[in-house]
Amino acid sequence: MDEKMMFPWMRWMFQLHNHNWKTYRLLALN
After folding, report:
1. Nearest alpha-carbon partner for 18 in 30, 26, 29
2. Helices (H), 1-30
3. Torsion-angle region of residue 2: left (phi > 0), alpha (psi -120 to 50) or beta?
């Protein structure tokens, strides 16, 4: 993959993972 393609994809994956982790934490705490 091209670097121009790769960087936004990594950022998107990181944001998606971060969102899922926060949702998991909220569900686990309830």
Report:
1. 26
2. 3-29
3. beta
Cα(25)–Cα(29) distance, integer angstroms: 6
The residue whose two tokens read 């934490």 is: 25
Instruction: Give the pLDDT confidence of 16-27 residue by residue, as tens digits.
Output: 888 888 888 888
| Burial annotation 2-28 (CB, 10 A radius, 16+ → b, else e) | eeeeeeeeeeeeeeeeeeeeeeeeeee
Contacts of 1 (CB under 8 A, 6+ apart): 9
Kindly report the backbone phi and psi dihedral angles of residue 2, in degrees, each rounded to the nearest multiple of 5, phi listed first. -70, 145
